[in-house]
Each structure stands twice: as structure tokens, then as C-alpha cells.
């Protein structure tokens, strides 16, 4: 009888455990989706944001016979590439510099900010970003809106990757897949809605539902451990947890009369050395060990975003039935599909050779530079294939980097390591944006 009761209890416990793991995995998938959504939409809208402000500084075109407005450019632009006067890299810089600043500094102070408060900041800054860009009347106002999106995305990525160490490793796969899905959902939804006839302004209003889903996923869907520091500093919670563990060990020592009395205190003293937050010296040592992950990740993202914001706008095919703006949007969409597929691949297999992916991504960038200059690509379909491969490389590098950082870090250092390594992709993106400006100017002056 007792045996059947115990069996039933164990079965119920296993079922609850599986249910919680699935809930947490789905919650992290949604968090990844919502966290990166605004960032992706701002990049997809970059071409429209700049074109909108340009059109407001020129004379409005006359309506075409069918009642639609004729798409036009600055009359002074004689470039064969049909360029915007300002590179879309301007939007990229506004989208990445605040994120980079947060990621460079936050690992040294963010442990003093409760997770619940961080998520509320992410929610409100995302809402403000959508509203500011949708109502903007100047480039400056648009850029400020993009900066709010950057703050939301940067703080969210750093916080949710750190948060993942409190759960099973499954949630990291969910997070990676969700961030990949954000690219597809953001770029595809923006492209589809605008091409269906909605204005970019109305499209951004519709997307206000995304920050709401983020808040619900975190505060409602996630099943937190009982000791999780929701509204208090994580380091305080960890100290309390370690103190409890020490008390439990002492109780076991007292009960176990057969244990060698000289050996246990030595073990306890050894554990006590690790109680408390990481010191500055320890953090520097951890950062040094992370460089083997950060540098390849930064190189992948440098080449990746140099293509996206420096070259994509210049890969224009006048004979295509798609307008220039539509071509740019669908480039972003195809790229994001590649990212989603590779970020979801962590459920199936892992790739340790991240440096190889960075070299292949650099080869992609070099190929497309020559393609822009010599214009030897036959049609837009070839560009779609290259950009899809670019997305596959970038997504795979991202998820595998953080998977192996989690696996190779000791438990006490894991939260700090996961937060610190997020600077890799942002460094690469920031340098790529800086490099994209002179390249854009050079090609547009031809």
C-alpha cells in the first residue's frame, strides 16, 4: 500500500516537473521573441524611417493617375545605387550604442537591481520606442525612439541570459529559438503589413501588443524557484541560500556520528570562501577566460551587420517587380528566417567551432562588397540565398556561444559570465555600423 502511494506521488511529481520545464521553456521562447522584436522592427523600418524624413524636407509629389503617390528620391541624388542621403547604418548605431553601453557596464552593477524591476524597465522602454517612432516628425525624434528600443533589448538580453542560470539548460534553447523567431516575426510582419497597405505608423501601433506579451510571459507564465530573488538583489538571495545550505550541512554533520570530524570542517571552510559576491579581481579573471568566446562572436556580428546595414540597401535590382523599399524589407526577412532556423538548431545539435563561422561570415561580406561594386549578381534570388546563409551563420554562432559558456562556467561564476559575454555581438554590430558609413558614402558618390 505504502509502495503504491509513494509511486503515485513520484509520478505526480514527475508530471509537475515536466509541466514546469515546458512552461519555462515556452516562457523563455516568448521572452526571446518579445525582447528582440522592437530591435528587429526598427532595423526593418530603417529604410522607411529615413525615407519618410527625407520626403518631409522636399516637395510632395503629385498623385499618380491611380491615386497612389509616386515614390521619389532627392533630386540631387545621381548615384547608380538609388541611395538614401543618410545610410541605414544611422538607425543601426542608434539601435546598438545604448545596448553596447549597457552591456559594457551592467555586469558590474546590475546584480544590485532586482529582476522584476529590470523587466518593468524593458516593458516601458519598448512601449515608448514604438510610440515615439510612430509619431515622429523628424529624424532626431525617430532616432530617440530607436534608442529606447535599444535600451529595452540590451537590458532584456543581459537580464534574461543571466536569469537562465536559475532554470534548467532547456530554457537556453527556448531563448535562442525565441530570439530567432523575433527576427522572422518582426521583419515578416512589418513587411507584410506595410505591403498590404498599412502605413508604418499604424503598423507600429499594432506591435504595441508585444511588450504586453513580454510582461505576461515573465510575471505569469514562468515558474520561479522558491528562493528566486524577484524583488530583491540576486547577491543577497544567493548569500541567504548559501547560509541555509551551510546550516543544513551542519545538521547533517551533527547527525552523522561515523563521519571523520577533522575532514568535514575543512570542506565547510572551503565552501565558506565562496560565500558572497564575486570580487573585482575574480570578475577580471572571468572576463579574460571569456575572450575566446567574445572575439569570434564579435567578428561574426561585425561581418553580418556590415552586410545588413552597409550593403543591403545598395543591392538594388531596378528590373525587379519589387520597389527598392520592398527589396530592402524582404532582404531583412530572408536574413531573419536564416537566423531563426540556426538559433532553433540548438535543440538538435551543437557546434563548438565558432571561429570557423566567423571566417565564413567574413567571406560573405567580402563577396557582397564585390557584388555591389561590380554588380555581377544576375538577379535578386541569388542575393536571397547568400543572405539566408548569412543568417544561418549568425544565429548558430550566437546560441552555441552561450551554450558552451554556460557548460564551461562553474555555478558561482555562471550568471556573471552569461551577462558579460553579451557584449560580444554588440561590439561587432557597433564597429560594423561605424564601418558602414564610409562605405555607404563611397558607393553613393559613384
UniProtKB/TrEMBL annotation:
Membrane topology type: Multi-pass membrane protein
Keywords in alphabetical order: Endosome, Glycoprotein, Lipoprotein, Lysosome, Membrane, Methylation, Phosphoprotein, Prenylation, Transmembrane, Transmembrane helix, Transport
Record GO cellular component, one term: lysosome
Main location: other
Biological process (GO), any one: axonogenesis
Transmembrane segments: 26-46, 89-110, 117-137, 143-167, 179-198, 204-224, 290-308, 328-347, 354-374, 380-404, 416-437
Subcellular location: Late endosome; Lysosome membrane
This protein's record includes keyword Glycoprotein: yes
Keyword Magnesium included in the entry's annotation: no
InterPro entries (alphabetical): Battenin_disease_Cln3, Battenin_disease_Cln3_subgr, MFS_trans_sf
SUPFAM superfamilies per record: MFS general substrate transporter
The family this protein is said to belong to: Belongs to the battenin family.
Name the record gives this protein: Battenin
Organism lineage: Eukaryota, Metazoa, Chordata, Craniata, Vertebrata
Gene designation per UniProt: cln3
Amino acid at each position: 500500500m505504502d509502495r503504491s502511494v509513494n509511486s503515485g506521488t513520484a509520478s505526480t511529481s514527475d508530471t509537475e516537473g515536466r509541466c514546469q520545464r515546458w512552461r519555462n521553456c515556452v516562457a523563455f521562447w516568448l521572452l526571446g521573441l518579445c525582447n528582440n522584436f522592437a530591435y528587429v522592427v526598427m532595423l526593418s523600418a530603417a529604410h522607411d524611417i529615413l525615407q519618410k524624413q527625407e520626403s518631409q524636407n522636399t516637395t510632395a509629389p503629385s498623385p499618380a493617375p491611380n491615386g497612389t503617390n509616386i515614390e521619389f528620391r532627392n533630386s540631387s541624388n545621381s548615384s547608380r545605387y538609388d541611395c538614401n542621403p543618410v545610410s541605414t547604418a544611422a538607425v543601426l548605431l542608434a539601435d546598438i550604442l545604448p545596448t553596447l553601453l549597457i552591456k559594457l557596464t551592467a555586469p558590474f552593477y546590475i546584480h544590485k537591481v532586482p529582476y522584476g524591476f529590470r523587466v518593468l524597465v524593458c516593458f516601458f522602454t519598448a512601449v515608448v520606442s514604438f510610440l515615439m517612432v510612430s509619431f515622429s516628425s523628424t529624424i532626431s525624434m525617430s532616432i530617440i525612439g530607436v534608442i529606447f528600443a535599444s535600451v529595452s533589448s540590451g537590458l532584456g538580453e543581459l537580464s534574461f541570459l543571466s536569469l537562465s542560470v536559475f532554470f534548467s539548460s532547456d530554457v537556453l534553447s527556448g531563448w535562442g529559438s525565441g530570439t530567432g523567431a523575433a527576427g522572422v516575426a518582426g521583419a515578416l510582419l512589418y513587411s507584410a503589413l506595410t505591403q498590404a497597405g498599412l502605413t508604418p505608423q499604424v503598423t507600429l501601433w499594432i506591435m504595441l501588443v508585444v511588450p504586453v506579451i513580454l510582461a505576461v510571459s515573465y510575471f505569469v507564465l514562468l515558474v520561479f524557484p522558491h528562493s528566486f530573488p524577484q524583488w530583491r538583489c540576486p547577491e543577497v538571495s544567493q548569500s541567504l541560500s548559501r547560509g541555509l545550505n551551510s546550516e543544513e550541512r551542519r545538521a547533517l554533520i551533527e547527525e552523522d556520528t561515523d563521519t571523520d570530524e577533522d575532514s568535514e570542517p575543512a570542506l565547510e571552510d572551503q565552501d565558506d570562501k565562496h560565500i558572497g559576491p564575486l570580487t573585482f579581481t575574480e570578475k577580471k579573471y572571468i572576463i579574460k577566460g571569456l575572450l575566446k568566446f567574445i572575439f569570434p562572436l564579435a567578428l561574426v556580428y561585425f561581418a553580418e551587420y556590415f552586410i545588413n546595414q552597409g550593403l543591403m540597401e545598395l543591392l538594388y535590382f531596378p528590373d525587379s517587380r519589387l520597389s527598392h523599399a520592398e527589396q530592402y524589407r524582404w532582404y531583412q526577412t530572408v536574413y531573419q528566417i536564416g537566423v531563426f532556423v540556426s538559433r532553433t538548431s540548438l535543440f538538435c545539435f551543437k557546434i563548438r567551432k565558432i571561429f570557423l563561422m566567423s571566417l565564413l561570415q567574413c567571406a560573405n561580406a567580402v563577396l557582397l562588397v564585390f557584388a555591389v561594386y561590380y554588380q555581377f549578381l544576375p538577379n535578386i534570388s541569388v542575393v536571397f540565398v547568400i543572405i539566408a546563409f548569412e543568417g544561418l551563420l549568425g544565429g548558430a554562432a550566437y546560441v552555441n556561444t552561450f551554450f558552451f559558456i554556460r557548460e564551461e562556467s562553474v555555478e558561482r561564476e555562471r550568471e556573471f559570465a552569461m551577462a558579460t559575454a553579451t557584449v560580444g555581438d554588440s561590439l561587432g554590430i557597433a564597429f560594423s555600423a561605424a564601418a558602414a558609413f564610409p562605405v555607404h558614402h563611397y558607393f553613393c558618390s559613384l
